[in-house]
Specification:
383 residues; alpha+beta; capsid protein of prophage fold; four-stranded mixed β-sheet; 10 helices
């Protein structure tokens, strides 16, 4: 199969899945529908989740209550949370289909000077590649799609609760303990995913490194005046990216200490809704406002408190610095009427026990990769 046929067939499949799941993609949750640019990725996630859950229910015997598991728990969690992940904003989402078996390819693009030796990107600083004389054959450029093979890794958590606790909370406070525990486990897994992605992005940034000291420099009357020089470092970070990719940056993700200094800058514009009540599950990267207003600013504890990274929003599925490839979304496993021993139990690690308790696991599988580190620049601040 050639490239055109492959992507044509892929587009047809995705269009079919988007139409199948349009009812859920368009359904407002907490006042908003899924952004349309995320529909293809979200439709594949819904399909993977449904097929995985349906496959699991065939092993559940008479536990018919769990036959509604995909709609009762998993799909609402995916529908609410995945669009809120920072990778849904700053990365390309390329879900692995179930047919991949957890090992598949991700794709990203570049435009190359085909007749250069070695071939170089069109974003390289060359000014004479297009020069030709009369009747001379022009040099060629080509569109290059690069693929990289990735393997899905697994994250999983378990929760055990007593029948009495579930009954008492439901009766006295109208709290669904199982649902609350699933939400808490989902939040934790998603935070861990975001943490791993943030460390990938920091470690994979190759556009350039900048440093800044918060100790007042000579010639500045006050600390407040000196703090404004942090702006110069953000400009330098953007120029690092621009010189390598001819692309201006769009966002800054910063650790807590960097965020505190941004808050002192005169051009800082905090988001008035950043602290608004939010009933959705919460992850670990929060939009806090715009600076300049050239760059969107996100706060996270997943970078070092004195670290910040700057980058560019993807302009297409293939033009991106980072790819997140979910395989199995957040999947609650079958409910088991039993307790569970600790994972470090000396006799039976994680073994079920015949007690009046309930146990349920939740799991996910995904892959991730920095693909164009030159679209990412780093900053470290210190005394």
């Amino acid at each position: 199969m050639n490239v055109d046929d492959f992507f044509g067939e892929r587009r047809a499949i995705i269009d079919h899945l988007v139409n199948k799941w349009r009812w859920l993609l368009e359904a407002p949750v907490s006042g908003s529908a899924v952004p349309s640019n995320l529909w293809p990725a979200m439709a594949i996630l819904f399909e993977n989740q449904q097929r995985t859950s349906n496959r699991g229910t065939t092993l559940m015997g008479t536990q018919t209550g769990d036959m509604v598991l995909p709609e009762k728990y998993a799909l609402p969690i995916i529908r609410k949370v995945y669009p809120q992940l920072i990778v849904a904003k700053i990365a390309s989402i390329q879900p692995l289909p179930l047919s991949s078996g957890g090992v598949g390819k991700i794709y990203y693009e570049d435009f190359l000077r085909e007749d250069a030796d070695p071939q170089t990107s069109l974003t390289s600083l060359v000014s004479d590649y297009g020069d030709t004389s009369e009747a001379q054959v022009p040099q060629r450029v080509k569109y290059n799609i690069t693929s990289a093979e990735v393997s899905a890794i697994k994250s999983a958590l378990a929760a055990t609760w007593s029948s009495e606790a579930q009954e008492d909370l439901q009766g006295a406070l109208n709290i669904d303990l199982e649902s609350s525990l699933l939400n808490a486990m989902s939040e934790e897994i998603l935070r861990e995913i975001e943490h791993k992605c943030m460390r990938d992005i920091w470690g994979g940034a190759t556009a350039g490194d900048e440093t800044w000291s918060w100790t007042k420099g000579n010639g500045y009357a006050t600390e407040t005046e000196w703090y404004q020089t942090l702006h110069f470092k953000f400009v330098d970070m953007e120029m690092n990216i621009y010189k390598k990719r001819w692309h201006q940056a769009d966002w800054i993700i910063c650790g807590t200490n960097v965020a505190s200094f941004i808050d002192k800058l005169r051009s800082w514009h905090p988001d008035p809704n950043a602290r608004a009540a939010n009933t959705m599950l919460t992850t670990g990267v929060q939009f806090v406002g715009t600076y300049g207003p050239r760059w969107d600013v996100y706060l996270t504890p997943f970078l070092g408190e004195n670290q910040a990274v700057m980058g560019c929003y993807p302009t297409s599925t293939l033009r991106t610095s980072y790819v997140y490839a979910p395989y199995i979304p957040l999947a609650p496993m079958p409910l088991v009427y039993a307790g569970m021993k600790a994972r470090d139990d000396a006799t039976l690690p994680g073994g079920y026990t015949n007690t009046d308790e309930w146990t349920r696991n939740i799991r996910t599988r995904y892959a991730r990769k920095v693909v164009v580190g030159d679209m990412l620049s780093r900053l470290t601040i210190s005394a």
